[in-house]
Write a structure and sequence with these properties.
- Two copies of one chain form a homodimer.
- With 521 residues, the first copy, chain A, is of the alpha+beta class.
- Helix content of chain A is 32%, strand content 26%.
- In chain A, strand 12 and strand 13 form a beta hairpin.
- Chains A and B meet through strand 2, helix 2, strand 3, strand 4 and helix 3 of A and strand 2, helix 2, strand 3, strand 4 and helix 3 of B.
- Strand 5 of chain A pairs antiparallel with strand 5 of chain B.
Chain lengths: 521, 521
């Protein structure tokens, strides 16, 4: 039995039926990525990589505007480097790819190849680069005149994850890691928070993904950091996604790497460092914030193509007329400016899809790829000098005829409107699923204790929490069965209406501020 | 005893004294890169990386203009993949980084960390990605409608080199690798040569580095390729540098990876593939083509900064006046357009160097960093509304006063003139050191047999050569003591005045065309 038309969707299962499987199917339908023959690694396909290129272009410009430069450090880290910083060892030197040989030789039976040339010291594929970059910085920094050092690296990193999910958690992933050195704690802290702001601005203004800036509780800190700050986003299944982090590392790594400098007064001092990063995980966040049961929905400011033109014709005569009209429209649209890149502005990206496929098949591909605006143009439209327009923030059937001149004069504002709509919707979803919760009973119920795990994700619980380290283990033990973690202490509780003081819901001790709790990716 | 002033130079030793050491000192003085604690790997410092970013921006635009898109494939390749293509195994599966474990555990004595979690199949850090990309393409390609596939990847790769030299030959290096799939041999060959043209245009027009396009002789081919094409440049020590290669892979890799498609006639066919790449080695070529005894010389179109302003003052009063004037000039210059990036045009990049250093020290730093145009501005210049200008293609003392208005109206043409000068000089050097050589005796003498190896590099010898495979081993044996190799069979012998036929200087057999021989990096 067929479903009634309005219940059909391009992606099966739907979000409400099986969210994790829906996520995989959206990726497949949009042709973003695929699993690779190497366990836990993915292949980022052209459409997915184009989104990453747009993310890179905007962030790179923002990093440079805040005074940073790029550099590149080695992929491999000597084992002894990872052993330098005690907490860092615990956190990172565990599940990682270890290079032990530098040659392959013919096997003993003459067939196949076997590892040979064993290394004296094993090398680790970087899980993050604090230690190897620290070794360079120790050389670069001699005097206070050499500070600050404001460097970013775009790179691949590797963490041998057991359970992987495309974009969200893969063994190899692409990211940027900023590593800065400062003369004072104050400057290093300012840098840490400045970059958190850059991430927050990027998430809100480009990804149309509302985020909450906050500080991680001690148990959730980056290994070796003094303070870890985060931007936390709510996905459509009400789970949290840590979308970016900025770490104030104090003098921990500077001590381990011996980054010292002579102050203006001629005194040897230990420097203060920070690190901050976002990764291809952002694409996972993008998917889970906006996409729907028909596939990917891209915020226009990060879409590789803003507009797609679908020419409709039945014979060669029509083909000629339609293609000429479409090509002229493509040219005119491509002259317009939308969004921005390193130079602050860029051309509207228009795809005239002239592939030899059925028009309807193309339309569904365009929908599943998340292209913000679709134009269908056939002989009758041309007679009226108009096009048939669909918007990805509306339903597939919600299309309208637009006069050509009007299209050209309104397309940029339409794209901005779509961008704003997506942000607004995501913010409404978050607001609707954020609750102040003041008792342990309500907390358990919110996160669906005993209920169906997958369908009862809860949302963001704003609850009072005692910062007393003595209680950390007991609180963790209570949270673990619920699969809930402390996401962050919000930096701006006023915006969340969570400024009151109260009592810790776990211990009853006095608490000055609410913490966000959620299930998380 | 001090040398007379005109004999002093910023880099010691000079090129004529010790070319390899001069090369290292130029890199150090320009702050381009440094050795890392990991054997054979380098750290690319911000000034060096900024040059790579400019190289990337221009090439990426050229790739996209020729219809290519970017994607990303796994860093690690299963050992069995490298074993698939027989010649490829021979060429690549030798000196490479082998990952054998996926964990570090506390050592048996409780101290330190040791590799654990041995992998069932070792993984290789990609030395090049034909095999792993082929595995994806086998899935992507089903029908002739899926072709061509035109994909490029920007990535790090690793080859365990024994003798390394910064930028020219390092264990890890950055590169791009294009991998395309076509329905016919003809299309694949067109692609191969089209990308060779892209490389040649880039080398000439952006790097100001003249190159000769040619085909590699069988002994110098990429392992597994049917034909390898190259762009060969002459360095200032008259050695050749292979600056980029483009490979017609025939059906070799398509067979190994099973990249098959249904033709329009419904027949299963094996696809045709190409690959092409350039790397951070280009930066080595840039250095050795243009730099002089005072350090790096950058072609303006790839310089991270086109103009540097050096404010000169003796007290706080002068400081205020001078800095205001310089800041205004910086702003005005920054409004101008020079060169191009992905959008086809970009702003003039101006650095107002306000660091708290002596003016003379700064000037030498600017020279050693290769900045095309230097402006010195002091109170007296401001009175005349003029600046003191030095050009990196002239000597450090060859400076002149330029009226401010004239500077603004001529700076772009000055930069273009510098760009042209650098290309012209390099071309003259190559012409002066390229000889048609018709006897083995002259050949031996040209390459300094018995002479001082380092100072007698010869140059490019254009000599007749028999393509008979039966002679290959004997010819190699004659060339080896001279450390000379066949660089390429030029694609455009007319341009080199080498169109005559003759007799192979090694075998006396008839030869239709001259081959370029040289010592090489």
């Amino acid at each position: 039995m067929n479903k009634p038309k309005e219940e059909r969707s391009a992606i099966s299962p739907r979000r409400g039926e099986n969210y994790p499987e829906w996520y995989q199917q959206v990726i497949k339908a949009a042709d973003l990525a695929e699993v690779s023959p190497v366990r836990g690694c993915m292949v980022i396909k052209p459409w997915g990589y184009a989104i990453w290129e747009n993310i890179q272009a905007v962030l790179d410009r923002m990093f440079k505007e805040t005074g940073h430069v790029n550099a590149y450090f080695p992929l491999l880290i000597p084992k002894s480097f990872l052993e330098k910083e005690a907490e860092h060892v615990e956190g990172f030197a565990k599940e990682c790819a270890v290079v032990t040989h530098h040659r392959l030789e013919a096997g003993p039976d003459g067939k196949g190849l076997v590892p040979a040339g064993e290394l004296e010291e094993p090398l680790i594929i970087r899980p993050t680069s604090e230690t190897i970059i620290g070794a360079s910085y120790a050389k670069w920094v001699q005097s206070y005149r050499d500070l600050p050092i404001l460097v970013n690296q775009w790179a691949n990193v590797m963490r041998w994850e057991m359970r992987t999910r495309m974009f969200l958690r893969t063994a190899e992933f692409l990211w940027q890691e900023g590593h800065t050195v400062h003369a004072t704690a104050k400057e290093a802290m300012e840098e840490t928070l400045k970059m958190l702001d850059v991430y927050s601005t990027f998430a809100n203004d480009y990804m149309a993904m509302p985020v909450i800036k906050g500080e991680k509780t001690p148990g959730e800190r980056f290994p070796g950091a003094v303070n870890t700050y985060t931007i936390e986003a709510m996905m459509q299944d009400r789970k949290a996604l840590q979308a970016g982090t900025s770490h104030f590392l104090g003098q921990n790594f500077a001590k381990a790497s011996e980054i010292k400098f002579l102050s203006a007064e001629g005194k040897e001092e230990i420097a203060w460092t920070t690190s901050w990063g976002v990764s291809t995980r952002l694409i996972g966040g993008l998917i889970m914030t906006h996409s729907d049961d028909d596939g990917l929905v891209l915020p226009p400011r990060l879409a590789p193509k803003h507009v797609v033109i679908n020419p409709i014709f039945r014979n060669d005569d029509e083909r000629k007329t339609v293609m000429e009209y479409c090509e002229r429209l493509r040219r005119d649209l491509s002259e317009l400016h939308f969004g921005e890149d390193r130079l602050g502005t860029t051309r509207l990206q228009v795809w005239l899809d002239d592939r030899d496929l059925r028009g309807g098949d193309k339309t569904w591909q365009h929908i599943k790829k998340g292209i913000p605006v679709r134009l269908e143009i056939g002989p009758r439209d041309i007679q009226n000098d108009s096009v048939f327009m669909g918007r990805r923030d509306l339903t597939p059937r919600d299309k309208k005829s637009v006069e050509r001149g009007e299209l050209l004069s309104t397309i940029v504002s339409t794209l901005n409107e779509i961008q704003d709509n997506l942000h607004h919707r995501a913010l409404e979803t978050r607001k609707a699923n954020t609750k102040t919760i003041d008792t342990w009973n309500d907390f358990e119920e919110f996160f669906g204790k005993g209920g169906d795990e997958e369908s009862t994700q809860g949302g963001f619980a704003l609850s009072h929490w005692s910062a007393d380290p003595a209680d950390a283990a007991a609180i963790d033990a209570k949270l673990k069965p619920l699969k809930v973690t402390a996401r962050c202490v919000p930096l701006d509780p006023v915006a969340l209406g969570a400024t009151d003081s109260g009592k810790c819901i776990f211990t009853g001790k006095p608490s000055k501020q609410r913490v966000i709790f959620a299930k998380a990716y």
